From TrEMBL:
It holds the Pfam family MYG1_exonuc. It comes from the Eukaryota. It comes from Hippolais icterina (icterine warbler). This is MYG1 protein. InterPro entries: MYG1_exonuclease. Belongs to the MYG1 family. GO terms for cellular component: cytoplasm; nucleus.
Length: 144
């Protein structure tokens, strides 16, 4: 609730952060580092949670969802984290939303023939909605 969001790639600033997402070049959940840009990174939902069927390489969004999604959903719903409602919603949100982000962020096409994941929009289109319109007099992308 009182967290400060810092947008940087400066390693000295990142070292002082409690949680680092999508930058920093390391995946270490014990230290709350959730980057997927290392050449050696191959984690999927299935590799981190063997009870899950999805083999799409995770993006940083997928890593955060994998590690915190159930906890967040349980808190929002007032349901037990390991209960059937949270489990069903966690799976549906991953399958119908987060997996697409993971795949697009990692350059994975839906696949030849039978698509590997549902494409309801694109990550680029979603991010584009956050940017000011071309004719907006206020072009500062940091203004919210």
């Amino acid at each position: 609730q009182d967290a400060e969001i810092v947008r940087t790639r400066d390693p000295q600033l990142l070292a002082g952060c409690d949680i680092v997402v999508d930058v920093g070049g390391e995946y270490d959940p014990g230290r709350h580092r959730y980057d997927h840009h290392q050449r050696s990174f191959t984690e999927s939902m299935r590799s981190l949670r063997p009870d899950k069927p999805w083999g799409t390489k995770l993006s940083s969004a997928g890593l955060v969802y994998c590690h915190f999604g159930s906890q967040i959903l349980a808190g929002l719903l007032g349901q037990p984290e390991d209960g059937p409602v949270v489990t069903a919603l966690y799976d549906k949100l991953y399958e119908n939303f987060v997996e697409e982000i993971d795949a697009l962020d990692n350059g994975i096409a839906p696949g030849p023939g039978e698509p590997r994941y549902a494409l309801s929009s694109t990550l680029s289109a979603r991010v584009g909605l956050l940017n000011p319109r071309w004719n907006d007099p206020e072009q500062d992308t940091e203004v919210g």
